[in-house]
């Protein structure tokens, strides 16, 4: 345990093992990533009574909205009473957070809902939700005196870490699966000056190697196994709740990859409930891509067997050996934080499900039609909601928020191929002529395709086209 002098009261916090049979607790300054006693995941624990009173907290957070202080302008550090840092922490920030909550009428109609809101974390400085956790993880790295920060990544964690490491003037080592990261994400990491290592293998291999690397004293690991990452990400629950007038939505739907973000939202909402900032939890539902859905499989098996939550959490997850999905951000077979995420889902009465590549692709195009857009992984949410409305798990009049995790421009190859009708299941773009017999079966149908058209260089030709398109869309919502 350690004492902190934060604004107002002194508070205490520790790193604590999540395994009920262990529960060991460690000082905040210990550079550990899993429990040294039992190997369980760690989380930051602080007694809620030391944080402050709900009404006063709301007022302080709101007042900071008009402040020019760099910390107040960050959507993460504005909620610093929830964070395990003292007031003199060497904050590394790019003004992350403060992301919009959009109404999405077209996506709502697609899902069969009266209304749907999209919390767009792609509006962060490096274009993904990772920034909200990287600000706290890199701040902790600086506090601990690390020289190098490192991560394994499908691209977004890498881009985000590279940016924050550059701000902190730290060395940055990034491990990515070769050929499986979008160009945009790779470009970001290179431009921010990181050492980028392309590994032969998949994300899960990169994760194993980066854990070896972190055994070296000089290197600090900032994947979401690091509990300080999740502390930053959990503040998004407070930001969202504030945007909802402190009335929790009925359902919160999130994509699942390594399962850090759903863990963080779960922790955030649980703490906000304990603090009296909300009187209930939203049901947290995690959506995975069919070819990379180990948690959805576990959830289905145990639900069919009617297992109690403790039993499910005491069990093991069977990894997917060769995960497959065009949503490369979530192409993960052995998610590190599955226990924390599942705990959050079960505590809130949510679900875990998987959706197909075709469903993801169409949902993504629909999100675009609301003028919002996102990267493929984020679109699992709208695809999942549509399913759950059909199944009756989500009522048509319920308040639903989908969390979009990455910006549309993170993977433009995917977008262009969808709209041109050249998006193929195994990502070969249809160039693999060795299997012509399966080519059509592997093609994703661009049900909402919007391919560019070649026209004569004449205004009249273009006007004619627009007129025809308008006539064709009469009655469309
Ligand atoms: N959406 C996007 C756009 C992501 O980049 C990721 C994860 C997720 C969803 C899943 O979040 O892992 O917390 O369950 N990307 C990681 C990376 C793995 O390396 O960028 P999660």
Helix content: 25-40%
Q: Report how far the terminal alpha carbons are from each other.
A: 57 Å
**Strand residue content:** 5-15%
Whole-number radius of gyration? 22 Å
Major β-sheet annotation:
6 strands, mixed
User: What is the mean pLDDT?
Assistant: 93
Biggest sheet strand order reads: 5-6-14-11-12-13
Number of helices: 17
Structural class category: alpha/beta
Report the strand count: 14
The small molecules bound here are: ligand F0G
Q: What is the 3D form?
A: globular
Indicate the low-confidence ranges by residue numbers: 1-11
Q: Which key phrases capture this entry?
A:
binds ligand F0G, alpha/beta, single chain, 17 helices, 4-stranded antiparallel beta sheet, globular
Characterization of the model:
The protein is an alpha/beta fold and about 475 residues long. The longest helix has 17 residues, at about 225-245. The strands form three sheets. The protein has a six-stranded mixed sheet, sandwiched between helices. The model is unreliable at about 1-10 (pLDDT under 50). It is globular, with a radius of gyration of 22 Å. It has 17 helices and 14 strands. Ligand F0G binds next to α5, α9 and α14.
Task: Explain briefly what this protein structure is.
The chain is of the alpha/beta class. The chain has 17 helices and 14 strands.
Task: Indicate the topology.
Blueprint lengths: L1 E4 L4 E8 L7 E2 L15 E4 L8 H10 L6 H4 L27 E3 L1 H7 L5 E4 L9 H15 L3 E5 L3 H13 L2 E7 L5 H9 L3 E5 L3 H11 L5 E3 L5 H17 L7 E5 L4 H15 L8 E7 L4 H11 L4 H6 L23 H11 L3 E4 L1 H13 L6 H16 L8 E5 L7 H9 L15 H7 L16 H14 L5
Parallel strand pairs: 6-14, 7-8, 7-10, 8-9, 11-12, 11-14, 12-13
Antiparallel strand pairs: 1-2, 2-3, 2-4, 5-6
Helix pairs in contact: 4-5, 4-8, 5-6, 8-9, 9-12, 13-14
Bound molecules: ligand F0G.
Ligand F0G binds next to helix 5, helix 9 and helix 14.
